[in-house]
Structure to design on (620 residues):
């Protein structure tokens, strides 16, 4: 029974620790993605078209089809309409395009993001993501740029350095006013932020924007709000869950995989408990029979074994949760340098009561089944047969 | 007390044991009545059906045919729950191998049937258990584990346990079969005292003719039937 208890303790503890780790990285990624790219993007305009089909001389309409016209042609109107949704907290226009960054050290491909700074600060955490330099210097300099930290490293750029941005034969000289770091490798490696009028000049796009970035009061409602917004605005609306779907799916798969792996420990300890209780039933048949002869019911006998299982479960869960909490705290303090899909210098964990609830629920199911079967077997024993056998 | 309504009545009891070719007709139409305050002995050679009869009367087994009434309650067709309840309220068992729970003390073993009955509170229950152990001469060993008692002492604890809920009928299956002469006499005298002074009905199964002859009534069995 001690082995079963140990299994429950380690199973519950490891379940909590692995869930805290995997969901920690998932939450870190989600938080960063939201802080950088907002809750949703309003992008291409949707134009409904009718697709006819000719059969002989007759033309049959097959219903509506959709055509997407790139970008947002009237960002002001769409922004006003977007603000009518009560869940919308802020909207910022973004003009995006591919450019080359020439730092005199290296020519780097990059993505230019033209923004209105104050508008963009309302829908992102750019203010908190500045690693070097000052946002005010960028605000005051129409020819200022903010570049990602990884891009700055690759191009050997520092705050105050000049840089040439070019696209399709057009090029202009700018000054690095700040360097930002989101923690998401791809963003920090390719993003260059400039004032919207400068982006229009470089990309040769005097009107419209690539997309509107919106922030929501309740980010979890983004998926539900998106279709309504799309109907009203006539533009495609991409919630963050869809935008980051690939990575979110990877994190979910990792979380499920680690939960399954760790659950096998609980399952094995459950099998151990089943064996132990089954052995106890075999060893205690005389005692069970004598209790039955005294007037203890089948239900009483079942309860004795279930109580035994419940005690192991209760002690195992309490110790397992303590182990999980302690282990999570230790893991959180382990130095770990990650420079991949995101940037961190220590293990990222997420503290959630649900990890404890799920760990205890998994252990409860396994232990109840492991106890219930021997308990039922014990309750079914016929006292007369056992006493006759024992007395013979 | 003799002359009161019988505490147990059984009519035409039949019981087979075993399966297929090994199936044997163990009890062949037994009938009996047990009256309050008397010590009955069932004796006979090994395999004559004494213990099988005791288990049927003790509601630990079911007859194939016939009827059993205990304290006027018809038990032969009763549900498992009703029979279990009757065992707790009306019956006490003493077996050849005492069957005490080894992890429990003598006092805790005696408390077990009372805890299930639930008629007394914790303090009166403990007082009664102590009193019963005093009556069987083991008051000073109440806190000893069952394994720390001698065979005779364990059997006396088993008798105290059987009396815990003040049963109308005490069923004893070879209670002296595992004891020496001195302890056998002690246990028999205890059972006789329970019948004659406390008014319990005692049914004693024994293959020892000397003990059987000392009972108020002796029911001799042979081949599944009572014989004169």
């Amino acid at each position: 029974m001690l082995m079963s208890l140990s299994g429950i303790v380690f199973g519950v503890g490891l379940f909590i620790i692995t869930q805290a780790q995997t969901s920690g990285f998932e939450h870190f990624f989600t938080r960063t993605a939201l802080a950088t790219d907002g809750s949703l993007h309003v992008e291409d305009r949707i134009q409904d078209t009718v697709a006819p089909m000719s059969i002989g001389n007759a033309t049959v309409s097959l219903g509506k089809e959709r055509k997407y016209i790139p970008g947002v042609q009237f960002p002001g109107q769409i922004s006003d309409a977007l603000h009518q949704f009560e869940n919308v907290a802020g909207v910022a226009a973004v003009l995006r395009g591919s450019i080359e960054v020439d730092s005199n050290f290296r020519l780097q491909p990059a993505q230019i993001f033209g923004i209105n700074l104050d508008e963009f600060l309302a829908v992102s955490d750019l203010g908190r993501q500045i690693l070097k330099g000052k946002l005010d210097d960028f605000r005051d300099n129409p020819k200022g740029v903010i570049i990602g930290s990884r891009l700055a490293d690759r191009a050997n750029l520092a705050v105050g350095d000049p840089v040439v941005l070019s696209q399709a034969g057009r090029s202009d000289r700018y000054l690095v006013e700040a360097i930002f770091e989101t923690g998401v490798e791809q963003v920090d490696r390719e993003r260059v932020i400039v004032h919207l009028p400068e982006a229009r000049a470089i990309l040769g796009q005097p009107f419209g924007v690539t997309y509107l970035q919106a922030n929501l009061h309740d980010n979890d409602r983004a998926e539900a709000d998106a279709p309504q917004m799309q109907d009203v605005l006539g533009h495609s609306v991409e919630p963050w869950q869809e935008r980051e779907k690939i990575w979110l799916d990877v994190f979910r798969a990792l979380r499920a995989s680690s939960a399954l792996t760790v659950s096998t420990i609980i399952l094995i300890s459950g099998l151990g408990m089943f064996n132990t209780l089954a052995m106890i039933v075999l060893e205690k048949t005389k005692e069970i029979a004598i209790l039955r002869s005294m007037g203890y019911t089948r239900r009483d006998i079942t309860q004795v074994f279930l109580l035994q299982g419940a005690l192991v479960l209760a002690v195992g869960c309490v110790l397992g949760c303590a182990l999980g909490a302690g282990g999570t705290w230790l893991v959180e303090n382990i130095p770990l340098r990650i420079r991949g899909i995101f940037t961190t210098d220590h293990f990222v964990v997420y503290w959630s009561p649900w990890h404890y609830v799920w760990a205890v629920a998994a252990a409860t199911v396994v232990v109840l089944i492991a106890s219930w079967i021997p308990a039922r077997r014990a309750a079914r024993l016929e006292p007369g047969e056992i006493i006759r056998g024992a007395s013979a | 007390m003799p002359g009161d309504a019988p505490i147990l009545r059984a009519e035409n009891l039949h019981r087979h044991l075993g399966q297929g070719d090994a199936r044997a007709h163990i009890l062949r139409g037994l009938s009996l009545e047990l009256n309050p305050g008397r010590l009955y002995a069932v004796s006979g050679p090994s395999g004559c059906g004494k213990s099988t009869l005791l288990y049927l009367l003790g509601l630990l087994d079911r007859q194939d045919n016939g009827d059993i009434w205990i304290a006027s309650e018809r038990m032969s067709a009763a549900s498992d729950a009703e029979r279990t309840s009757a065992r707790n309220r009306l019956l006490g068992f003493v077996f050849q191998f005492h069957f005490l729970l080894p992890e429990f003390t003598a006092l805790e073993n005696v408390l077990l049937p009372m805890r299930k009955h639930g008629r007394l509170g914790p303090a009166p229950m403990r007082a009664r258990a102590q009193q019963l152990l005093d009556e069987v001469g083991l008051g000073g060993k109440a806190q000893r584990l069952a394994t720390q008692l001698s065979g005779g002492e364990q059997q006396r604890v088993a008798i105290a346990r059987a009396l815990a809920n003040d049963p109308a009928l005490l069923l004893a299956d070879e209670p002296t079969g595992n004891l020496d002469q001195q302890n056998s006499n002690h246990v028999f005298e205890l059972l006789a005292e329970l019948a004659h002074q406390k008014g319990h009905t005692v049914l004693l199964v024994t293959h020892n003719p000397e003990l059987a002859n000392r009972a108020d009534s002796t029911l001799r069995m042979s081949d599944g039937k009572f014989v004169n």
About this structure: The longest helix of chain A spans residues 245-283. Chain A has two domains: 2-33+247-384, 67-233. The interface with chain B takes residues 286-287, 289-298, 300, 382-385, 387-388, 390-391 of chain A (CB under 8 Å).
